[in-house]
Amino acid sequence: MKTALVLGGTRFFGKNLVQTLLSKGVKVTLATRGKTPDDFGDRVERIFLDRVEKDSVIETTRGRKWDVIFDQICYSSHGAAVAVEAFRHSTSHYVLTSTLSVYGSLEKTCYEEDFDPYKYPISYTRRENISYQEGKRQAEAVFFQKAPFSVTAVRFPIVMGKDDYTDRLRFHVEKIMHEEEIGVPAIEAEMNFISQEEAGEFLVWCAEQKLKGPINACSNGTISLKNLFSYIEQAANKTAKTTSRLTDENSSPYGVDHSWTMSNEKASFWGYSFTNLQDWLPSLIKAFVESEKKVPLS
Fold first, then answer.
1. Mean of the per-residue pLDDT values for the chain?
2. Quick check: helix, strand or coil at residue 53?
3. Which of 23, 52, 59, 91 has its CA at a distance of 20 to 30 angstroms from the CA of residue 279?
4. Of the candidates 173, 166, 154, 178, which has an alpha carbon nearest to the alpha carbon of residue 274?
5. CB 176, CB 233: distance < 8 Å
6. For residue 260, how many other CB atoms are within 10 A of its CB?
7. pLDDT 10s digits, 81-123
C-alpha cells in the first residue's frame, strides 16, 4: 500500500488511522468538508467534498486512484451507493468502519457470521431516515453486494480514547466525581472495548492484508460496568451511585440490558495480536480522572 484516501480522518480514531498510515510511509489524501481542522500539516494532501452527495464526490475525485480507500463516515445505504459509484475505478480495495451494533441484541458472543451482509435486503435511504444500527447494516449490504472492488468491513465495539468526542467515558467519570447517580439497567453486563490507538492500527492492518468480508476487532477480555465503575472509584477516591431508575439525565451511554460482546478469533487467527483490555483501560481512566480534577466542581 503506497497511497490511501481517508474519508473521515480528522476526528477520534480517524486521526490514529492517518497517523499509522503516515508512520508507514503511505501517501495520504484526506477527504473532508473542511470544517474540522487537523494537525497533519503538509504531511497529507487534502481534498474537499460532501461525502453523501454523489456529484460532489465524483467531481472531486474524478481520474484519481488510490491503493486503498478508508471510509470512517458511511452510515447508510445511500452513502454506500455514492461510494460504490464514485470510486468504481478509483481503488482495488475498500475498508469500511462498521460496528458491533449490526448484530442487534444477541444474548451471546457475536461472531462475524451472525450478520450476513451478502444476503441482507437493501433499502436505499439516507442516514437521517434510519437508526445507526440499520444504517450500518445497509452500508455493509450495499458494499458487499454491489461494489466492484474488494471490501473489508471492520466491526468495532465502543471505542475508547482521550479524543472521544461523544464523551461516553467522561460521562461516567464526571458522574462519579460529582457524586451523581448513574442509571444502569444491568450493572453486571459484560462488554468489549477497543482503544482509539488500536482501532487506527487495526484498520491499516486490514488494508495491508487485503482481507475480504466482515471482521470483528476488540481488545482481549471483557469488563462489567460494575468493574468499570470500580476502576473510576479507585482513581477518583469516590463511590459510584448507581440506580436502575433511568432518566434522560442519568442514563449510562454504556447501559446495555445484557452482556454485549464479540469474538476477535477470526482476526487473531489471521495474525493480528490484540492488546489486553486490562493493559490500557486503567491508565486511560486515570487520565480522565486527573483531567476532571483540574475542572472546579460546581
1. 96
2. coil
3. 23
4. 154
5. yes
6. 23
7. 999 999 999 999 999 999 999 999 899 999 999 999 999 999 9
